[in-house]
Amino acid sequence: MTTLITGATGFVGSGVLRQLLKAGHTVRAMLRPRSDRRNIEGLPVEVTIGDLADRASLDRAVSGCTALFHVAADYRLWVPNPTEIYDANVTGTRNIMLAAAEAGVERIVYTSSVAALGPTTNGKPADETTPVSIDGMIGHYKRSKFLAEAEVRRLAEEAGLPVVIVNPSTPAGPRDIKPTPTGRMIVRAASGRIPAYVDTGLNLVHVDDVAIGHLLAFEKGKVGERYVLGGRNMTLREILEVIAGIVGRPPPRIRLGHNVVMPIAYAAEAWSRLTGSGEPLITVDGVRLARKCMYFSWEKARHELGFNPRPAYEALRDAVDWFRRHGYCH
User: With 80 as the cut, is the pLDDT of residue 25 above it?
Assistant: First the structure.
């Protein structure tokens, strides 16, 4: 029996791949032709080349597989052409789900995100049942993940797709080679390049616990259900203080209002468009998201899956250690 995984070279996907191998799965990884393979070097995995936009390559990838972990996603908070995000996250997800259904795949785990969930209005952490609509999604990444998950849920309900959905919160830890937006924040903080902060909050979880949660969802999750894979709810100030303690630097003490940061974000995006220098350090959608604390409860995953993440400090410590060893921090 073979298990197919997408996104295996990425941050979360490489962790899921390691958990699959540890659990005894025979694994096939679908990679794009130019994928950076550093995260899978030396691992006993079959590689197949494919693209979420190429249905024929997806049919080849899922052929003979009994399970699918669809982890791949375009995780960018800013992109010059937003169509790219929707093509990857929505259309690509639909394509591989249909290919898996036609191939008779028996069990699917789809990696969504807490980005597809809504915030609460009473200050309590949100969960899998918090009401949300597309109108509440800020930015193209969140909208794309909302639409992709809605499509997966529709296929589960209408076509009997044997899929379990997981919604990771904000992972941190090793192997963040790009790095992700969260990883870039950790690198800048560890390098002493974040002099100030805004009032916001995140749910921080170790990336390897997110990977373990994927396996638990595969083994124990209910088809059609979704599970938040989260950790500790922390303010941004708390996160920066922990990182400062790890590296032996003083934490930032200057608090900036969102209205002060927003013009900087507009200017940073304009500069990125003008110069083609890639995603700016501060984005307009990022500032809009920061206006609300993105706190979540993972009680359902604890109760139904046995999910039990380690302390968030270990996620930050392991992230900083990995970034230091690989030359990201200066």
Answer: yes
What domain range includes position 8? 2-172+204-231
CB atoms within 10 A of CB 81: 8
Instruction: Give the residues across from 84 on adjacent strands.
Output: none
Q: Is 290 domain-assigned?
A: no
DSSP string spanning 207-244? HHHHHHHHHHHHHHPPTT-EEEE--EEEEHHHHHHHHH
Confidence (pLDDT) at 290: 65
The 8-class DSSP code of residue 74 comes to -
**Residue 310 is assigned to a structural domain of this protein:** no
Q: How many domains does the chain have?
A: 1
The mean per-residue pLDDT over the stretch 117-145 comes to 85
Spatial CB neighbours of 17, under 8 Å, sequence gap ≥ 6? 5, 8, 27, 29, 40, 43, 45
Task: Extract long-range pairs of 28-33: CB within 8 Å, 24+ residues apart.
Answer: 28/2, 28/3, 28/4, 28/61, 28/65, 29/4, 29/5, 30/4, 30/5, 30/6, 30/57, 30/58, 30/61, 30/72
Q: In angstroms, rounded to a whole number, what is the distance separating the alpha carbons of residues 309 and 20?
A: 18
At 68, which CATH number?
3.40.50.720
Q: Cα–Cα–Cα angle for 320, 168, 251, nearest 5°? A: 35
Residues 133-176 pLDDT 10s: 888 888 888 899 999 999 999 999 998 999 999 999 999 999 99
Cβ neighbour number for residue 303 with a 10 Å cutoff: 10
Neighbours of 182 (CB within 10 A): 20
- Tell me the whole-structure pTM to 2 decimals: 0.93
pLDDT at 275: 76
Determine the Cα–Cα distance for residues 208 and 229; give it in Å rounded to an integer.
Answer: 11
Residue 325, SS3 per DSSP: helix
Q: Which residues of 26-61 are buried (b: 16+ CB within 10 A; e: fewer)?
A: ebbbbbeeebeeebbeeeebeeeebbbeeeebbbbb
